[in-house]
Amino acid sequence: MSSDHLFTTSGSTGVPRQWLRSHAQMTQEAALILGHWAAGATEVLSFAPSTHSYGMILGEVGAQWLNARLQACSLEQQVLPQLDGDGPCVILAIASTWRLLPTLLARLSARRSVLVVHSASLLPPDALAIVQRLAGPQVRFIELLGATETGAMAVRELDAQSNAEQPWTLLGDVTLLSPIGAPSPLEVSSPRIAREQGAAAPASRHRCDDLVLALDARRFQWLGRASSLIKVNGVRLDLARVASELSQQLHCPTLACVAVRDALRAEAFEVLFSSATLTERAVREAFTHWPAHHPRPVAVRRVAHLPLSATGKPQPWAAATSVKEYTHEPR
């Protein structure tokens, strides 16, 4: 019987696809990350679901590797952690976890050292302010950049001096194949690249949807997701960031910005949302609080259902025929 574990891509940039990771690959990833930043941790509080590779690898496999207690938590399902443990602990955060983090850390850090790991989505707009306020000897923060297809690829250690433009550093077993000095897709090789369902073996390299500027052989700046970057009247927009900020402003997690073709502007975007209480007018009015030069959507549409991935990312391809299906072909 195969020990490979099947994961499905989130669907935030296209129709989900299935990938297989071996137990050895997952253990290697957990050891690489937790062995460096959380050796000796006695407990893992995971808000990342185990159906997602992040939650499985650093949650279930990671807790086994550490011989640590694992608590599976969920704000969406109102499953909160018990804070009765002792010793160093790890919090596996997703975007929604940051609403609870200040309260959690206030209770934990008085008697335990805590490592907060964030992955699976952009940092929420107020996350860096929380880092700058709470980072210190007892509380450390790291952010991981990864994909279902590749596992974790790069890391940023966040502290009081961190900002959104802080470069990323590759993990030790990842090789950067992107050219240095020019914006290009993030392309890597790694022994942890997953095997696509139906393929005989994993590819030796993978080209991601992420657009980066390689600074040297080990570091790069992340410029956005190629599938969410557009230019409207000469202004470059990262639709993933626009959606993240708008979603928080309107308290609507089921909201997405999607690129559309426009006869006047060539590129434009529309806002899709699913909510019983939010109105299209309220979404349009939210943009009146944004800078005057910021492009506005050409349309705002309520949809009956905008499904979320396991880690809370909207899947607009499932709700709109205008959304391009993006794929991530291994090269």
CATH class annotation of the largest domain: Alpha Beta
Detail the poorly predicted runs. Answer: 318-331
Net shape = globular
Q: What's the domain count? A: 2
Total number of strands: 19
Spell the H/E element sequence: EEHEHEEHEHEEEEEEEEEEHEEHE
Portion in beta strands: 25-35%
Named CATH architecture of the largest domain: 3-Layer(aba) Sandwich
Mean pLDDT: 88
Query: Structural class, from helix and strand content?
Result: alpha/beta
Under CATH, the topology of the largest domain is which? Rossmann fold
Molecular structure report:
Mean pLDDT is 88; it is low at 318-331. The chain is globular and about 60 Å long. Strand 6, helix 4 (127-134) and strand 7 (139-147) form a beta-alpha-beta unit. It has an eleven-stranded mixed β-sheet with strand order 4-3-5-6-7-8-9-14-13-11-10. Strands 1-2-12 form a three-stranded antiparallel β-sheet. Helices cover 19% and strands 31% of the residues. The protein contains six helices and 19 strands. The protein has two domains: 5-226, Rossmann fold (3-Layer(aba) Sandwich), CATH 3.40.50.12780; 233-318, 2-Layer Sandwich (GMP Synthetase, Chain A, domain 3). By secondary structure, the chain is α/β, with parallel strands linked by helices. Residues 8-169 form the AMP-dependent synthetase/ligase domain. This is AMP-binding protein. InterPro entries: AMP-bd_C_sf, AMP-dep_synth/lig_dom, ANL_N_sf. It comes from Pseudomonas capeferrum.
